[in-house]
Specification:
Elements lengths: L5 H11 L3 H13 L3 H25 L11 H10 L7 H18 L15 H13 L3 H21 L4 H4 L2 H18 L4 H13 L17 H20 L8 H14 L16 H10 L1
């Protein structure tokens, strides 16, 4: 699937009177030659893997090989089950499932990189929580997932989704944009609202450093997934209310790429700056290596 820009995507939705997910299906069918049913089945399987990762991360409390992460999802899930969360029901679940997926990734479980392994929890966290809250089907959730894929695909084509190339704004920022668009889709929003939600999410991640302690996709990555899942929900809610992004999403993506290119290498996944270079971060590195 090769969607060059958000403007192209919106033009296609307007021209054919289709939501974003249908444009994605058509593009994917053209590129792959697969039937629509085959593509949808593949997407349904992907969503099932996401759900299994989220729940496994909570249920097992698996520690990572380094011991830096593990158990946070279960801790938070028990906290919200005791009705102590300061967040609303859906937001709390999104945090738990995002932590579960990301923690499961750190512990070498099976996950879907969405768009990367380091940001794998944000889209599943938001979609699974929304599904539980509003009761839509797996197939409807997949429509959101397809919408998210369009946003991620444009970012990957137009800029980067690599933390090493663009900082964590390119990873968790893109994932938050994808999750926001997906949520608007499943809640019945328009294509324009999906795009505005993605823009609101991404532009509030600009400048986010990629600074993994000891060079491992664990600290601060796992907890960052939980935080940015909530931010994605906020962006979606604003878009659904009719709030527009002043800066178009294509331009936000371009700005993100420019910022990433201007970032010092020490905060682009090298573990030479940011949180990785704090006394605690350096001590963890010495202990592990």
């Amino acid at each position: 699937m090769d969607i060059p820009s958000i403007d192209y995507l919106l033009d296609e939705t307007a021209k054919n009177g289709q939501p974003i997910w249908q444009v994605v299906l058509r593009e994917e069918q053209t590129d792959s030659g697969d039937s629509l049913d085959t593509i949808l089945e593949r997407a349904l399987h992907t969503y099932e893997v996401m759900k299994n990762a989220a729940m496994s991360g909570i249920a097992t409390g698996m520690k990572s090989v380094s011991g830096l992460t593990g158990g946070d999802a279960a801790t938070y899930y028990n906290y919200l089950r005791n009705h102590k969360s300061l967040l609303g029901s859906m937001e709390s679940k999104a945090v738990a499932y995002a932590l579960g997926t990301s923690g499961y990734n750190a512990a070498m479980g099976v996950v879907v990189a969405c768009p990367t392994a380091g940001a794998a929890g944000i889209v599943p966290g938001v979609l699974i929580a929304a599904q539980e809250e509003y009761g839509f089907s797996d197939r409807e959730a997949v429509y959101g997932l397809l919408t998210a894929s369009a946003i991620g695909g444009v970012v990957a084509t137009r800029a980067t989704i690599s933390g090493a190339a663009g900082g964590c704004q390119a990873e968790c920022g893109t994932a938050a944009a994808m999750a926001a668009a997906a949520l608007v889709e499943v809640m019945g929003g328009s294509a324009r609202q999906c795009v505005d939600a993605a823009a609101l999410a991404l532009k509030n991640c600009l400048g986010l450093a990629c600074d993994p302690v000891a060079g491992l996709v664990e600290v601060p990555c796992v907890k960052r997934n939980g935080v940015y899942a909530v931010m994605a929900i906020s962006a979606a809610d604003m878009a659904l209310a009719g709030i527009r992004s002043f800066i178009p999403l294509d331009e936000v993506i371009d700005a993100m790429y420019q910022i990433g290119c201007n970032m010092p290498s020490c905060i682009r996944e090298t573990a030479e700056g940011g949180l990785a270079a704090t006394p605690t971060g350096l001590a963890a590195r010495r202990r592990l290596f």
